[in-house]
Amino acid sequence: MLFPKKVKFRKSHTFRRNPKRALNASRGITIAFGSHGLKAMTHARVRSNQIESARKAIARNLGKSGKQWIRIFPDKPFTQKPPEVKLGKGKGDIAGYEVEVWPGRVLFEIDGVADTVAIAALTSAAQKLPLKTKVVARAN
Q: Rounded mean pLDDT of the chain?
């Protein structure tokens, strides 16, 4: 799973912005490396294990041919309190890392395979993610 080597602060604050408001990504919105990509249509916090399972789904569909790129990296720690613990007594321990994904962001890219194989691989990866996505092709 992906996680940063070092973070400046061990625990991060919650990002308090309304996800229902029309706030779109301004970076990473075009296909830069491959011929097909998986683009986010809604806001979500994607955890590192979800990214890893989507990566495995793509690799399983591609086989030995083709190349894939992961365009997001989980660099924000999230905390979780143990089960059956009462409120108070401070913030919970770090449970893992996540990334905030806003609409328009390209999550994965694929190149070197046929269109049908690329679409099948990206749709299988989309099922592993907690947000709505669509498969896009590079505009030539």
A: 93
Which residue type is seen at 89? K
Long-range CB contacts (< 8 A, 24+ apart) of 87-96? 91/11, 94/10, 94/11, 96/1, 96/3, 96/47, 96/48, 96/49
Sign of CA dihedral 125, 131, 132, 138: negative
CB-count burial class (<10 Å; 0-12, 13-18, 19+) for 60: exposed
β-strand 106-111 against 67-70: which pairing, if any?
A: antiparallel
Res 19: pLDDT: 63
Domain 43-82+92-137 = CATH 3.90.1170.10: yes
| Interatomic CA distance for residues 92 and 22, integer angstroms | 31
Summarize pLDDT for 37-96 with one digit per residue, the tens.
999 999 899 999 999 999 999 999 998 999 999 999 999 999 999 999 999 999 999 999
Residue 82 CB-density burial (10 A; 0-12 exposed, 13-18 middle, 19+ buried): exposed
What average pLDDT score do residues 13-38 get?
A: 86
**Where do the domains of the chain lie?**
43-82+92-137
Continuous H helices in 13-98:
48-62
